[in-house]
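Technical note accompanying the year-one report. For the benefit of new consortium partners, we illustrate the data format agreed upon in the data management plan: each record pairs a sequence with a structure-token string. No post-processing was applied to the example shown here.
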Amino acid sequence: MKELIDKALFYVKGVWMKRRFIIIIAWLLCPIGWFYVMQMPDQYKASARVYVDTDSLLKPLLRGLTVDTFKDQQLNLMVKTLLSRPNVEKIARMSDLDILTNNNDEFDLLVDNLSKEIKIGRTKREKIFTLNYTHPDPDSAKSVVQSVLTIFVEDTLGETRTDTDNAQRFLNQQISDFEKRMAADDAALTEFKRQYADLLPGQGNSYYDLLNTEQEQLENTELALKEAQTRLFSARIQLEDEEALPRAPTPRQAVLSSSIVTQYDSRLIQLNQMLDEMSLRYTDKHPDIVELKRQIADLRAKQRQERAELAAIQYQQNRPAEALESPFVQSLRLNVSQLENEVASLKVRAENYREKVAKLQEKVHLVPKVEADLAALTRGYDITKSQYNQLLERRESAIMSQKADQSTEGVEFKVIEPPRVPSDPVGPNRVIFLSIVTLLGLGLGVFVAFAISQIKPIITGPKELATLTKVPVLGAISHTNIDKMLQVRRRHNLAFALVISVLLLVYAGLMFSQTSNSPYVEQFKSLVAMNR
């Protein structure tokens, strides 16, 4: 500790020996700094307070019916974007500060300074906003705050109306687009159903249900056909038993008999031979075989018709006048005829069902794709319709919200304190600046003195000599004229104290000149008077 103290005293002695540099530096810097501080223009602060009410009485009543416009978030966004460059440029023009600039560079600098100097504050709980701006001209400061307040109110209300109009315009456009999409989807779905109508049965039935139904109908028809053929066979046996006596052949028997020769017999024999030969080489679905079968069927129909005509002629010629059938035989023949008609009808019906089943089975590979396409079309149409209905609901909610905002003025501004400028300036704080200049001048002088004392050290005693030379000092010789040296030292100390005192007196005078007119001094005096 003793070494540290000795070292500190050594540094102090060195600075004291170079104290003239303290005076020089202080008297060079302090007057310049004081002059600059005193020449700084006064600053006047304009302020205003406004309360923003975003809650209305209809808000809880219309909850769920109208669109929540998030006025608080919108208000916060407007506050953050209030000092954007377009708005600041508008503020500069509204407050006539732009006329003080001569070119674009000066105007840009003015806009940058305004964006930094305009302050917007807000309380934590209440929606009270404070607008502050400081300027050498009180009228300009007030004009700037008034412009900021005007833009704040107008932009917030205008933004709300603009957002509502844009939302409705967007919804109307989307609704129109979805109407077109719904029309296109509906047309595509209708065309798809028309194209695949046979694979898209009625509501509640699928392709496989229809195929099963047709197969069941075919089985039932074939079963009914077998039953009708069995009854026909029994009826024919019964009729043949009743017709055991030889009689002239009836026209139907003549048709069934091959004894009647027609012009189509030879042609049928030839075509049957050709059919037998081609059946050995081709399948039944070969076009030539199909054509031969069709020709054979036509010739047989013509053969039966010609035989029926010839048999009728023979029957009329050979029928005895007394050969009249009994009523029982006639009833049997009528029953056989009815059963034949029923069998023919069932054959036609079975063939129809058989064709339907064949057609459905041929398209079985298309069913999965058709069902998937139908599901995709239906799903797309349902999604489009759902979105369309939601857009309609949103548009109605937006319209109701706009009407509610217009009737209740959803955002209400209440100016608590209009823009005002106190008569006393708020800055600059010359007291602090003068103190800083004074301390800076003295401190820099001490630093220069210390630096010079270290560059050119001065020995003031045996200890400093031993410390610097690292050689022990055996003794010291005093000065012969010590009294004169002490007088010179006293004069130097007195001069230093006098110069520093003058410097401090000047500083004190400047401080007094500022504090006597300071509003803080006035407030302090008023507080003292109140306490008395």
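Partners are asked to follow this layout when depositing records. The chain has a mean pLDDT of 76.
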